[in-house]
Every structure is written in C-alpha cells, then in structure tokens.
Amino acid sequence: MEFPGVLANDDISLDIKKGEVFALVGENGAGKSTLMNILYGINEPTDGEVLIGGKKVEAFSPKTAIGLGVGMVHQHFMLVPSFTVAQNIVMSMEPKKYGFLFDNRAAERKTQELVNTYGLQVDPSAVVREISVGLQQRVEILKTLYRGAKILILDEPTAVLTPQETDELFDVIRRVVRERGMTVIIITHKLYEVMAISDRVGVMRKGRLVGVKNTCDTDEKDLASMMVGRPVLYDDLEKTGTAGENRIAVEHLTVTDNRGLIAVNDLSLAVHAGEILGIAAIEGNGQSELLEAITGMRKPERGTVRIMGQDVTGKSPDQIRAVGLAHIPEDRISTGISAPASVTDNLMVGKHDDKEFNLFGFHQRRSTIERYAREIYEKFDIRGAGLDSDVGSMSGGNMQKVVVAREFSFDTPVLIISQPTRGVDVGAIEFIHKAIIEKRNSGAAILLCSADLDEVFRLSDRIITMYEGKVTGSFAADAITKEEIGYYMTGDRSEKEARA
Amino acid sequence: MKEKTPVLVRYRYLFSLLVSVLLAFGIGAIILAASGFAPLQAYGAMLRGAFDSARHVGDLLEYAMVLCICGLACVLGARVGIFNVGGEGQLLLGAIFACQIGIWLDGMSPWLVIPLAALGAMAVGAAYAFIPGVLKVKVKVNEVITTIMLNTIAAFLCQYLAKGPWKNANKNLVAATSQLNADYWFGKLIPRSNLTTAVFAAAVIAFLVWYVMQKTSKGFEMKIVGQNPRFAFFSGIKTDRLVLICMLISGAMCGLVGMFRVYGVEHLYKSSVSNDYYFEAIMVAMIASYQPVAVILLSLFFAILKIGAQGMELIGIPSQIYLILQTVIIFFMAAESGIMASIDAAAQRRRAKAAAQQRQKEAQA
User: Fold this and answer.
1) Are B238 and A357 in contact (CB < 8 Å)?
2) How far B350 CA sits from the closest chain A CA (Å)?
3) In chain B, which residues have their Cβ closer than 8 Å to the Cβ of A389?
4) How far apart are CA A49 and CA B281, in angstroms?
5) Minimal-distance CA residue of chain B relative to A353
6) CA spacing 20 to 30 A to A203: which of A178, A229, B86, B167?
C-alpha cells in the first residue's frame, strides 16, 4: 500500500492465528494504521494479497471486511453521542417493526443479550453522551460483536483510558479470546501494555515489518530498539538541585470553556524554580483551560495568576511572555506552528523583533536569521527536508521538535508544557524528555500536563490530579503509584470512600 | 540547494499562469469564432488598440496604476487574513473628499492643496475601512459582508453629495461636483492621455508595500498572522492591532487612488472616477495569488486587455469579450492548483509503485 509518494507498507507478510492477541507496535508513521486499514478494507493494497479465514479478499471495503468477521475500534470513537447505547450498537443493522419502523425494544433486548454473552457490562438504554470514555469504548467493541466480528482490531485503545479502565479492557480482551475464541489485534505504542496483554508482537519501522516475536521471548527495551532501529537508552534522566522560589502562583482561579460552562473551578496551585509540577487528569477535566488561562490564551472569570511575582491575570500572551514565560501548546498544529511557513520562519517567531536580526530595527537580516535557525535546527536534532521546507510537511515528531526548540530557545524562567510528546515517535520522546529535565535542572519552573500518565510520572517532582476542574490530590511523585493516582483522576477519593 | 525551493515554486506559478492565459485566449477564440468574428483579426485589433498610439499607451499605464495600487491594497489585507472588498467605497469617498478639499481651498498654493487633498483622501479611506476592521477584530463580524454593504452606502452617499450639497453650478452636469482649479491638476506625462505625474507617487507606494511585506520584521509578522492567527497570538504578536493597521492602510491606499483619479483625470468628482475598478483589482490580486510583484505585472496585462478591447470595438467586436477572457483566466488559474496537485500525486504513485516492484525483483534475485 502506498499513500501518494510514500510507501506506507512495503512487502509485508504476516500471519495472525485464530485465538491470539497480536500486538502491533511501531513509531508514528511506521505504517501500523495503514496495514490495519487494509485489513478493514479502508485502504486497498497496490500489490499483494490478503486472506481472511483462508479466503482471499477480492473487493476491499469495510462492508466486505465486516462480512468476513473483521471489526475495528478506531482511536476516535465513531458513535452518535445523542443516541442510546443500544441504538448505537444496532446501527446499520437495526431490528425493524412491520418491516420499516425502528424497533427500540428489540434493539435493547439484543444489546442486553450481547452484554450477557460477553460479560461486557453496560446499560443499553443509557445515552452515549452521558457515559464515560471507557464505557463508550465498550459500546464500540459490542458494536463490532453485534455485527459478528471474529477478529477485533483495536487502534490505540488505551490512549484515553485511566489505569483502572485499561485493566478492565484487558480483562475483556482476555475473556473474549479465552471464552469465544476471538482474535484480537491491538495497535499501541505503550510497550508495557504489549508485555501485559499480547501473545505475539510485530514491530513495524518505516513501512516494513522488522520482526515478529513471542511476547514471552522479548522485553520492552528490545522492542524499543527494534522500533527505533538503534539502542534506546531509557534511564539516564538525572534530576539535580532543589526547588527554589515560587514562580507560578495560581489562586482561586475559575475559567469557563468554549460553551461557557465552568471548566476550572476555584483552583489554586504553585510551581517553584527547579521543579516540575505534573498535572494528571483525564482529558476534558479542565486542564486545557487552566493552562490557557495561565498563558493568556483564555480570560479567566475569577482568581489571580502570578508569574515571577507579577500579576498577569487576564493579560494577553505577549504581555505574559514578556514576564518570562514560554509555552508548548497541547495542539501543535492549531496553535504551535504556522504550517505553510518554513522551518526557519517558525523558529524565528517571537524572536523576529530582536535587535540582532534586524538592521535599523526593521530590515530583516536574512543571513543572520538563517545562521541562527541552522544552529537551533542542529542543536535540537530536527530532521526534515531542510530549513526552507514548510513545517506542515514534517512528521509529528519533528514538528514537535520545532515547537520545543523555539520555546526552549527563549530561555525563560517559567515553562508551561502541554502534551509534549503526543503523537511523537520514541526517538523524539527520548530527546524531548531529556531537554525538559535539563531545563528543570538549570532552574526553570515547569508546569507539565500530559495525557500519558507514564510521562507525568517520569518527569514530575510533584503531581496533582484534576477532576472536573478541581484539584483532587497532590503528591510527591515518588510517594504514589499509578494505580492510586487513577482513583484521584476519577473523582475525590475521600468523597468516594465516604459514600461507600 | 538551500535557495532553490522557493524559486522553483515561483517558476511553476509563472508557467501555469502562462498556460492559463493561453487556454483563456483559446477559449476566447472559440467564442469569437462562434459569434462570427475572425479570432486572429480580433486579437490583432486588441494589440493595435493598446499600442497604436502614445495616448493609448498612456491610458493603459494609468489604468495599470489604478489596478496595481488597488490590488496591492487588497493584498495588504489578505496578507493578515482580512479581505477588504470595500475598496470601491473607500476610493469613491477619497475621490469626492479630495475634490472638495481642492474646491474649499481654491486659490491657495498647489504645494499646500495637493498634499492636503492626498492626506484628506487617505484619512477618509482609512476611516471608512476602520468600520469593518474594528468590527472584525473586536466582535468577529465577517468583513466581506460589511465591506460590500459599506460600498453601497458610500456610492449612494457620494451620489447624494454630488447631486446635492456639493453639486456644481452647471445645470447640465447632473451628478458632479465643481471642477478643480487647473493649477491643481497633475501634469500630463503623455499629451492627451490619462497618464500623469501621479504614476511616480504610485510607483513609490508600490515599492514601499512590496518592501514592507517582503523584507521587514513587520511584514514577517503579517505573514504569520495571515497564515495562522491563533499561532501568532500565542507567540505574542499583537494580532488585532496588526490586522486593524493593515486594514487602515488598505483603505488609505484606495482613498488615495480616488484622489489620483480626480486630480489626474476627471478634475471633478463624478461617478465615473471608478467603474468598479477595485473589483477588477481584487481579481488581479487573486490571480496573482496575493504576491506583490505578480500584482504589478498582472495589472499591466489586464490594462492591455482593457484598453485593447476598445480597439476591438472599432472593428465591431463587443468589448465585453475582454471580461470573458478575464473570467476564463481566473477559472483556469483556480482549476490549475487542483489539476497540478493531481498530476503530482499520480507521478508520486507511479514512483512508489516502481520502487516497490524494484525491491520485489531484488528480493527474488
């Protein structure tokens, strides 16, 4: 299979056995999704053939794939939020009354049967919008089972789940494999999950399948090296120095989201020089709005934000940056770069008014600018088609490196970092993590937010959990486990215990 | 190698522009033939009409100047992501106010009157552009709608002024102001043509616009704001202020063109100071894909078509054929990007397939 200009899958031969859990790992752009899309009939191979259950696939379309018993749960769920669980599950194969009317009762009955058969607990009459992400994923799985899937493809299924929900999902996978003889293919980039759930694992790199191993014969380090194509050093992040004075002080901050609903509710936090404060929260619990309010991208309703001792509440980003803040935004494409501009231009934004780059204060010195950009480009090991190519054509990892390189080169005493490695490959993650720790060791105050709990644990000195706009817990990073954090991410633990 | 990429892109743009123009002339020829005219003869008449006399050359340069400054005004807005469709209204208001300033100050030195009229026209144009600009920046009102509406208001306001309070004494001239004192008229560069000394001022303005956009740090900021305003705001660029300033300058340029029309050509205000010239300039800016140098060159090209069309009229061909040609060129330019992209994609697919087969062969061997 090729996308225009790129060989996404190159001469891949792979057998997946009935009744096994097969993990497919690889960096972003390695071709995992393309391979699975071919299996599910969304993409058509340029060359070669696909056999499902011994039958050669002739016409590639999701309809054929579903007919052959293939079901796929995408990373972004394909559910209608305003429909009930049952309505979503039976969609496209609805039970009918009198041959043309939708039979809701039959839909719910059939859903309940599925729930009982597979032991995937979910209320058929609940509206999808109102159930948790973990349950929505169950609905997606039930949907494929309803259509008679025997092979289940899960694309990055744990990206949006809490540790508890992940455990539950893995229980479900084990059950359908053991009791129903299903085959499960799981695409992931979290290697410990591969070790936890899979029987065999295939590693992809640059469109090729570079190895297939029995999970019991390999380990995370081995897999990481296969993915990147060179040994990956994981454990040399050394933290030095102690926390200094208060640099970010947020007090009683209340922020609303785009719909005008309260997203951050009377929240207070403090970050000191030489420390990383990590925010652990499931997406949509106010952490995005919190960071936007601190950096000036969103006006808070109430409360104060102090950076370097100065009140910057409600100021604009240019005023807040002037106080000494740099910001890696959660969505690099919409906020962190200008896609049609060159790498050089993207690295220059924010520094473009500096004296050294302008003759008489207005005429751009292009040669000085290019020299500076080259220096940064090499220092941050950005790899792409060169400084003149547009950033929009780069891979996610290199795009993120451009953002990190620019924001870190401001040398500010305060850094706000959101999703530093989302959709970034293993090699770049390693690099970005090291750069963040270096900033910390040199005395910067860093507020970090990430959907990847491992990342929060790996980098933070202290961790706070957020749930529905409030801080539900605050811990020293080495004094708490991921599992414990998970409880705080889903609500106030003391409240839950009181209820129980 | 470092500098190659942008240059190559530019050549490709010029090439596809040329192809579009040739295709447009081809279609134009078919239309001409279908209407019973000999295409070659018609195009010959067009060239003769544009170049047969110094006067026509002067007229076409004057028209190119109007298109160029208005086109650059449009580019200036587009660069920061605000589409000024209101240049026509800004031009008309600039023209009538500049004219009235000359009438009020009649008798004073031209060295005083002409700069004051120019400043007045620019101030009026900028003020009229401020309305949609501030609405866009502060309350996110779509500037395309507001500027189109304001065009109509300006046209009727000018008509009212020219028919009412500022009407001339001559009963036969219905909707026009009094004529300017001949001391204030711009000097003719080519006798009996419309080309006046205003063209030098226009050249300076065109150079300044190009320089600021392409060479300065402000121009760099403008580009980033236009490409991704959220990123620009995030990076600490004062986006709202920059958008508003560009809109004001855009309006001022249009107002000044109005002043040039009155002091150079018409010598009084009447509605013919502009026949939707700004809308033609928008098309020029669009075809030029908002590149300043391309705007200048295309302004000349469209001026040749327009003045040449009068030559075609002499042999009985309706001058509207020029509008058809213009539209067809725009059509092909628009289609071009899509066609080129699919050709590129097909070539890349072929290369990828060849590479795959090559590897397969190597594997078998």
Assistant:
1) no
2) 8
3) 5
4) 56
5) B217
6) A178
Six token digits for residue B145: 């709608």
**For chain A, what is the largest distance between any 2 Cα atoms, rounded to a whole number of angstroms?**
82
Which CB contacts under 8 angstroms, 24+ apart, belong to B7-11?
Answer: none
A386 touches chain B (CB under 8 A): yes
Using only the alpha carbons of chain B, give its radius of gyration.
Answer: 24
> Where are the domains positioned within chain B?
32-333
Query: Least CB-CB distance to B234: which of A6, A317, A340?
Result: A317
Q: Which residues of B touch A (CB under 8 A)?
A: 2-3, 5-6, 215-221, 223-224, 227-228, 230-238, 344-345, 348-349, 351-353, 355-357, 359-360, 363
**Nearest-by-CA chain B residue for A295:** B234
All CATH 3.40.50.300 domain ranges of chain A, comma separated, are 2-228, 246-499
Nearest CA in chain B to A296: B234
Extract the tokens encoding A200. 């065999």
Fold of A246-499: Rossmann fold (3.40.50)
Distance from CA of A412 to the nearest CA of B (A): 14
Using alpha carbons, list the distances in angstroms from residue A355 to A173, A213, A364.
60, 57, 10
Give the tens place of pLDDT for each residue, B126-167: 999 999 999 999 999 999 999 999 999 999 999 999 998 898
With beta carbons under 8 A apart, name residues in chain B contacting A2.
349, 352-353, 356
Q: pTM of the prediction?
A: 0.79
A2-228 topology per CATH: Rossmann fold (3.40.50)
Strands A200-205 and A21-26, sheet pairing: parallel
User: In whole angstroms, what is the distance from residue A25 CA to residue A6 CA?
Assistant: 19
Partners of residue A357 in chain B, C-beta under 8 Å: 217
- Chosen for mutation from B208, B210, B220, B360 (greatest number of chain A CBs closer than 10 Å) is B220
**Which CATH number describes the domain made up of B32-333?**
1.10.3470
Residue with tokens 């120019």: B118
B178 secondary structure, DSSP code: P
Q: B310: which residues sit within 8 A by CB, 6+ positions away?
A: B49, B56, B319
Question: How many Å apart are CA A129 and CA A132, to the nearest integer?
Answer: 8
B-chain CB neighbours of A317 within 8 Å are 233-236
Question: Are A349 and B235 within 8 A, CB to CB?
Answer: yes
